[in-house]
Amino acid sequence: MTDDQDRRLGSTDYQYVLHREMIAKGTEFINHYAITANCCPSRTSLLRGQMVHNTNVTHVNAPGGNYDKFTISGQDTDYLPFWMSRAGYRTECWDRVDALIDPYTYVFNTPVMSLNGQRPMYYEGYHQSDVIRAKAVDRLEYLTSQEKPFFLTLAPSTPHVQNDLYETVPLARHANDFANVTAPRSRNWNPPNEIQKQKGSWLSTLPRMNESVEAYADHSFRQRIRGLQGVDEIIEDVINLLDAKGVLNNTYVIFTTDNGYHIGNHRVPAGKALFYAEDSNLPFVVRGPGIPAGVTSKIPGAHLDLAPTFLEISGLPKDQWPPFLDDQSLLHQWHHPESSTGPGSGGGNAKETLNVEFWGLCIVEAPNAQELGIPFKNNSYKTLRIVGEEESWLYSHWCTGETELYNTATDPYELNNLALNATHESARLMDRLNAILLVTKSCAGNVCRQPWALLQPGSHEDQILSLKQAMDPKYDSFFAKFPRVAFKECLQVQDIENEQPYYPPLPATGALGQNYRNKTDNYKSEGEGGTRYIDSGAQYGSWEQRNATLADINKTAREVTDDEIYGNTTMNKRRRDLGIIDDPDWFQWIG
């Protein structure tokens, strides 16, 4: 799982190993989505198998969410690693955790990691991607020698930006690759005023990018695809090791990311956290037992589907699955990627109806960010994406009151907002989309899996199975009666009263996943980020280090000292000498 990797911008086109070892030998699912385009909530949703409104981890930092909120809510005691362990798996994100540590998570040439919460180790003289590659190979040497099945997660930070540089930092051996490549100039690249003014909230007032900003965007794109060459090397070494150990054909290998990314789209120089396709449509490839080779599938999926998928693979009896899962296993569609999505297929049925949501502020990950006015605190929205062959729509309601509607079949770059000066047909369509969004924005369990079941004007629950069926004129008055999705104001957190109304009305207690997590109202975070006292100041990852083993890397590794953790006068002087500058307050929100 990479960090902040686009699919719509074509970054995977530059990953030749991914194409050779995964896409050509597995199945690529091109309609896989993140339900929140932000690191922490997206990953929490995956690990809990729930909608973000049910985990209530809604942002990458407090007050919306962070690791403290995850643990205070008690969700860290009942999530995917525990369930896989129950199924008899060794889970290498719980039984053994070797994690990057803030404030060095995104400082690529200063890799600092902690094994099982022990004192952090500084792997001096190496790039983060090489350290993760070597650790992955070393760990797989052990895991493949055991009888117990394993569940291993590899999560490099690439192509996330190094926050203080506003760009990805690739391995030195790839620093000059793709010198003539530019960011793709799709139709929504830096659009003219008549297009941009149709956007909602803070986007409508963004100025057009000038030549220097466009040049930065091109540089940012090059740095990202250069950084991904290190990810390709991780894939290559992992696949080779699994093959050499004779377990490749009995192992599911999944490649994806936490959320997408935009560069120059809709005038935003760089970043994420929006509902447009660039931010929510993810690269997703699977190879393994029963997975057809060389197939491209349009069947939709989302990250919250992965927990039940892994549980089905594990063979854990369903009566031992957690009761709060909000979606369903993808294993059948992995094995049959050209199959139907079920009754109402193609017309926007339950499987083709995706809820996308966001709370809190948004930033721009570019040098001119402050000039543009970040942080934008009016970025909360409720969104519905219909992904069917016959019905394909994006419908979103901002906390500022604006609505956006796009026919993504005829307008794949999401430019022409049909909610403005809506025609009679567009108004009828929005009545239906508003009603289904009222359901999905607070759904849980079976309601998330079958949201259309709650929108039946008659006594038969199978009367309306899809948006296409719902568009029958005989249902006009039924859908017109639903209240509209709304926010009272733009808050930085999820708040029940602020987001009334709901359909069906919420119960007095236990709504939005509260039966399965502790309360976190006004929780206190122990701190985020930390202070950097180490900086190599060099570029690592030469060709000589391409095949460095963990034993090689450990020769220069050392424990981080107390002074490097807590600081003192000497350390503060060292920071100044190294030119390390404290980030502005808003910068903590980059995640």
Structure keywords:
591 residues; 27% helix; single chain; alpha+beta; 4-stranded antiparallel sheet; 4-stranded mixed sheet
Number of helices: 19
Based on CA atoms alone, the radius of gyration comes out at 23 Å
The helix-and-strand class reads alpha+beta
What's the end-to-end separation, in Å?
15 Å
The best one-word shape is globular
Mean pLDDT figure: 95
- Which residues form runs of ≥5 with pLDDT under 50? none
Biggest sheet, strands in spatial order? Answer: 8-9-1-10
Q: Can you count the beta strands?
A: 16
* Portion in strands: 5-15%
Major sheet: size, sense and barrel closure? 4 strands, mixed
Helix content: 25-40%
Walk me through what this model shows.
- The protein is an alpha+beta fold and 591 residues long.
- The chain contains 19 helices and 16 strands.
- The chain has helices at 16-23, 39-48, 52-55, 67-72, 80-86, 128-143, 193-196, 211-244, 277-280, 306-314, 331-335, 369-372, 424-440, 446-449, 467-470, 476-480, 550-554, 562-566, 569-578; strands at residues 27-29, 32-33, 90-91, 98-100, 112-115, 121-123, 150-151, 253-255, 285-287, 295-297, 301-302, 353-358, 381-387, 392-398, 403-407, 557-559.
- The strands form 5 sheets. Strands 8-9-1-10 form a 4-stranded mixed beta sheet, with helices on one face. A 4-stranded antiparallel beta sheet has the order 4-5-6-16, with no helix packed on it.
- The longest helix has 34 residues, at 211-244.
- It starts with 15 loop residues before the first helix and ends in a 13-residue tail after the last helix.
